[in-house]
Every structure is written in C-alpha cells, then in structure tokens.
Amino acid sequence: MSVKPNPFTIAQHQLDDAAAILGLSPAMHAFLRMPMRELHVSIPVQMDDGTYQTFQGFRVQYNDARGPAKGGIRFHPDETIDTVRALSAWMTWKTAVVDIPLGGGKGGIICDPKSLSRGELERLSRGYMRRVAHFIGADKDVPAPDVNTTPEIMTWMLDEYEVITGRHLPGVITGKPVHMFGSLGRGDATARGGIYTVREAAKLIGLDLQNASVAIQGFGNVGGWAAKLSHQMGMKVVAVSDISGAFYDPAGLDIPAIAAHVDQNPRHLIEGYTAAGMKPITNAELLELPVDLLFPAALENVITADNADRIQAKIVAELANGPTTPEADQVLFKKGIYIIPDFLCNAGGVTVSYFEQVQNAYNFYWPIEEVQTRLEAKMTTAFRAVHEMAQVHNVHNRLAAYLVSVQRVADAVAARGWVK
Ligand code: NAD
C-alpha cells in the first residue's frame, strides 16, 4: 500500500533545496525549517440534538518576520497538523514572492462540514474563534477562507472576535463579503492574477494570446474565472472540466453559456451542458491536449512522472496548489514547457486579501479599477523577479520562486537579528 507523502516533509525538502543554492547559514536554515508558533485547540460544540461534540483545531504561524501571519482556515475531515504546517510554510513563501508585508500562517479544524447543520457550523466557527482570538489579530495573524470555509463563516468569526474584544476590527480576517467590509475584486483575484502572469510569460516565449488555445481543469471559483477571463481576453478556450467530466471543442467553447449553465445547475457542475461540436473527454486527456496554455485549477498531483512527457502545452499556469510533482517538474523543464509555479501564479487571491486589510485599516474602500491596477502591478513585478532569478541560477521557475521568497524572508529574519 502506498503511503501518502507527508506535506510538511515535502515543504521542508523544498526549503532545503533553496537554502543550499542561496548558501543560507545552518542556523538560518534550521530556523526556517520550523513554524515559529502553533496553537492546538479543543472546541466543544452543542449539536442540534442537544449532545456535545469536541472538535480539534489548529492555528500555525509559520513565520512573521515580514509582517503579520496570513493564511486561510480549512474545515476538513482529514486535516492534520502537518498539513497545516506545510500550508503555513507555503503561505510564507507566497506572501514573500509577491512582496506584500505579511508572513505565513494557516488554520484548520478536523470536521466534515457536509455533515453539520448550518447552526452547528456557526457554533463551531464561533467556538474556534473564541479559542484563537488572543492568538490572532490584524497586527499578528489574519485568517481567511480556504477549503470548505466561506465569506459567511468569516463574518461569524469576525463578529465573535469583535464581541470578545469589544471593538470594531474588520481587518482581523479577510475574504469577508463586500457588504461586510470585504474588498471588491476578491472573487476573480486568483484567476486574474494568474492571467497577468500568463501575459508576461507569453511575451517572453513570443506567444500571441489572441486566439491562443486554452485548456482548464476545474470550473470552480478559480477555474471558472480563468475560463471567463481568458474568453474575455480573446483566447480560445477549447477544453474545460470539473468533477463531472471534461469537455472539448477544438473550435472553441461558448464559455458564457457554460458559465450560465454551471450557475443554474444546483450542483454547480458542467454536467448536462450540450453543444454541437463539443465532445466529452476525460480529465486526464484534457491535460494532454495540444494547446498553447494549460491551467490546472482543480487538484494537486495531476501532472506526474506518468503523464509529464505527454503534456503539450507551451505554458502551464498552476492556479491549483501543487498540481505538478517534483519528478514531473524536471520533465516539463527539459521539454521547454514554461511553468508558472503555483505560489506565484495563484498569489492574486492573497494579494487582494492584503488590499482588503489595507482598506479595513483606513476604513476607506477602493473602486474595482484601483484593486485591479494594483493587483496587476504586484503580479507583474513578482513574475519578473522570479524570471530573473531563474536566468541567474539556470533553474526552473519553481525553484527560482523559492529562491526569491526564501531570500526575502531570511533577509528580514537577519535584519531583526533573530538568526544570522
Ligand atoms: P472550488 O472548490 O471552487 O473548485 C474546484 C473545482 O475542481 C470544481 O470545479 C470541481 O468540480 C473540480 N474538481 C474537483 N475534483 C476534480 C477532479 N477529480 N477532476 C477534475 N475536476 C475536479 O475550488 P477553487 O477555490 O476553485 O480552488 C481550486 C484550486 O485553486 C485549489 O487547488 C485551491 O487550493 C487553489 N487556490 C484557490 C484560491 C482561491 O482564491 N479560491 C487561491 C489559491 C489557490
């Protein structure tokens, strides 16, 4: 039986590779290999039938040398402390690569949200906040939505926090609904940020994006927006997919019609959509199509040593977290495929979350154009820094992104005098 790799071990190995190239001191390397702080909590919740259940939760602040920790809260039955540690490390590198003044954190509760009633979910969310309230804060650690958590859950948590502190402090949490101190432009920020990096990559490899062919795996928040934005920009989206299957039309799909279908479908799936010229394929076949641009926007570990040599896209823009395994990375690099690595490509979400915090701090809210202009500047600058680093060290883009981020975090740690 194959054992699932421990994500925190993977995160540490990725750091090890960067530390060796950067020549970090053993003390700095050792410090950056571990989270700075973590909190384990037990949350008793009264269930609808009157009984009590105790849930286990975590909040990890991996590194806050560059600013308050930042990262989502996940509700998942298979949550583990090592998953949360790994994700908090990746948030540290992600905030550093886009150069926003924040560190990395993550939280989670072991629970199956689908088996909870709305009332139970609210009591669990408020109970978690009661346990972590003194550990987090706009100037310490700022959570956000993540797997199975929503803007509504963020609003319950914010309200609980404000009741505990007796103050109005919306910047303690981001990803709030727009009418509850959220930012305009958060909905499509991850896909939009990814598209800005694609535009830069296309310039580098001489690819004209007008009519460029695009395949997208996943049609949820990120994949759905990637499809709509690609279509709006004049690209030809030839394949889309979700858990219900994949759909291909080399002449180009009618993305507005598919998006409208998914909106109306009670399960928010593409299933049931039909159009002349469109044929069903598998999710595996979608990845191997002869397209200019491939957006994995659903799951981790979908491009592996088994299929990497059959990937034909010119650019792989990783909107999902961890879609490409380290072995596949090497294969794609040798084939000359341009990879935009996940924590750069999908950093638009956390960037607009940071903008949300800034607006909360000023209690003054920006028009959408301002959000998008600032996002574009951040993503473009980050892309160029990673590209330059890849040239300097002749390494693939993922390692280059680590080099940029780890160096920035190490510089802040050294400047503070924590470790030399
Ligand atoms: P989502 O739940 O809204 O959408 C996920 C999509 O993937 C759905 O269309 C689902 O049907 C599809 N999917 C699930 N299993 C599949 C399978 N076996 N084969 C094909 N498709 C499958 O999630 P999301 O917010 O769009 O996130 C997608 C990815 O992007 C995740 O890896 C997430 O970590 C990453 N990400 C999201 C954000 C964000 O702002 N939402 C930010 C950074 C990274």
Order of strands across the main sheet? 9-8-7-6-10-11-12
Structural class: alpha/beta
| Nearest-integer average pLDDT | 96
How far from one another are the termini? 43 Å
Number of beta strands: 12
Q: Biggest β-sheet: count, sense, barrel?
A: 7 strands, mixed
Question: Which parts are unreliable, with pLDDT below 50 for 5 consecutive residues or more?
Answer: none
Hetero compounds = nicotinamide-adenine-dinucleotide
Rg, please? Answer: 21 Å
Tell me, briefly, the overall form: globular
Q: What is the CATH class designation of the domain at 189-336? A: Alpha Beta
Kindly report the oligomeric state of this protein.
single chain
Helix content: 40-55%
Number of helices: 14
